[in-house]
Design a protein that fits this description.
- The chain is mostly helical.
- The chain is 49% helix and 6% strand.
- The protein has nine helices and four strands; from the N terminus they run ββααααααααββα.
- The protein has helices spanning 35-40, 48-55, 60-63, 74-81, 83-91, 113-125, 143-208, 211-228, 273-278, and strands at 11-15, 21-25, 263-265, 268-270.
- Strands 1-2 form a two-stranded antiparallel ribbon.
- Strand 1 (11-15) and strand 2 (21-25) form a beta hairpin.
- Helix 4 runs antiparallel to helix 5.
């Protein structure tokens, strides 16, 4: 086929600058010493210094030989290693348009963005060196473009930081308000519990009172209420009988007065006629 040279061994497709493609016969695997390819595919991967030493003194043809049965060149290996190795090989006249037996050019095997950017920077610096369309390098990457990208990345980072700061502040404010609301709710619960406790104790005290004690307490409550209201009526006064809304209680059973008003006898008030009948006023 076009990707192999028959008895000549492995081959690679070399694209000329006018976009025509020809088959470039390559040496038999292992027939020619391949220090550059061997250096770039060693395990562990080589250092940049070791790769530079392997490139030194090689002709463009030696740099571009396909060293393995897949027809890959040293630039294919460099693309897998990263950007600095790609730059080293391109500066040594490595051909980015050579495809391996699977039709992959070095750019297609680039390991990461730095490796791809190395191809694009070389294209910006040497726009007429190769047919970059065949090399599948999408566009040149100039210093101006990189500066613009860096400025955008910096601005994006600043905006992200500001958004995070704003979000953190909002969360802190929400937490503060939630804590305040919880404190208010707890205060309301405690106040309600205290009020209930006070009511329960009052009921216990009233339940333990004798009728005479209840009558005396009711009379005292009426006197205090009248004094608070400006002396409008006390014990034996002419004011209307206390009601539930005024806080009055029955002098016999201690129950709340009806809203329509109670019943009076002497200086005592009652919530219902039965209490008035059954109550025996204390002897004076």
């Amino acid at each position: 086929g076009e990707g192999a040279s028959g008895e000549g061994g492995p081959s690679a497709v070399r694209a000329t600058h006018d976009a025509a493609a020809v088959v470039a016969p390559l040496p038999e695997a292992g027939f020619v010493d391949a220090p550059l390819y061997t250096a770039l595919t060693s395990n562990p991967p080589p250092t940049l210094e070791a790769a530079t030493a392997a490139v030194a003194g090689l002709s463009p043809d030696e740099v571009n030989y396909g060293w393995n049965t897949a027809g890959e060149t040293a630039l294919h290996a460099a693309a897998r290693l990263g950007g600095t190795f790609v730059t080293l090989l391109l500066e040594a006249n490595a051909d980015p348009t050579l495809a391996n037996e699977r039709g992959k050019v070095p750019f297609a095997l680039a390991a990461d963005k730095p490796a791809r950017d190395a191809f694009r920077r070389f294209m910006a610096a040497h726009p007429r060196a190769w047919n970059y369309s065949l090399a599948q390098v999408p566009s040149a990457l100039t210093a101006e473009m990189e500066a613009k990208h860096a400025a955008k990345a910096k601005a994006d980072k600043k905006r992200a930081k500001e958004r995070k700061k704003k979000a953190d502040k909002a969360r802190a404010e929400a937490a503060r308000k939630a804590a305040e609301a919880e404190a208010v709710a707890e205060a309301v619960r405690l106040a309600a519990a205290e009020a209930k406790r006070a009511r329960d104790e009052q009921r216990k005290r009233e339940k333990a009172m004798t009728p005479r004690e209840r009558a005396a307490a009711a009379a005292l409550a009426r006197a205090q209420a009248a004094a608070t209201a400006g002396g409008g009526g006390g014990v034996g006064g002419s004011s209307a009988a206390p009601t539930a809304s005024s806080g009055g209680v029955c002098d016999y059973c201690g129950g709340p007065m009806p809203s329509s008003g109670g019943f009076e006898k002497l200086s005592f008030v009652y919530c219902q006629p039965r209490c008035m009948r059954e109550h025996t006023p204390p002897a004076v």
